[in-house]
Amino acid sequence: MTSLKNWWLFFKAISGALLGKSSVITLIMCVVLIASAVGVIYASHLNRQLYTELAELQSERDAYEMEWSQLLLEQSAWSAHGRIEHVAITKLGMKVPEAKDIVVIK
């Protein structure tokens, strides 16, 4: 803070000696204008970067949603009752019990 105050006093003394009072105000306004322009440029650049990142993330989200729907279809195909019954009969050798083999427990 002290160095900033010293810099301001130095600037004020030099500008007062070299330039008139209205020229100092004009110079300060030019510096403020340039700083404002740099701020606008920076904000525009940041906005473009963030928009590009948003577009990439939305594309990634769409890909994940498509994969999710395909996985749901695959899950429903693998868990279909007919398929499970077929696998139980062919691979595991299971069969539907006959009426005489069914025992009801109370």
TrEMBL record:
It is found in: Cell inner membrane; Cell membrane. The gene is ftsL. InterPro entries: Cell_div_FtsL (IPR011922). Residues 47-74 form a coiled coil. Essential cell division protein. May link together the upstream cell division proteins, which are predominantly cytoplasmic, with the downstream cell division proteins, which are predominantly periplasmic. It comes from Alkalimarinus sediminis. PANTHER family: CELL DIVISION PROTEIN FTSL (PTHR37479). GO terms for biological process: FtsZ-dependent cytokinesis. GO terms for cellular component: cell division site; plasma membrane. Part of a complex composed of FtsB, FtsL and FtsQ. This is Cell division protein FtsL. HAMAP family: FtsL.
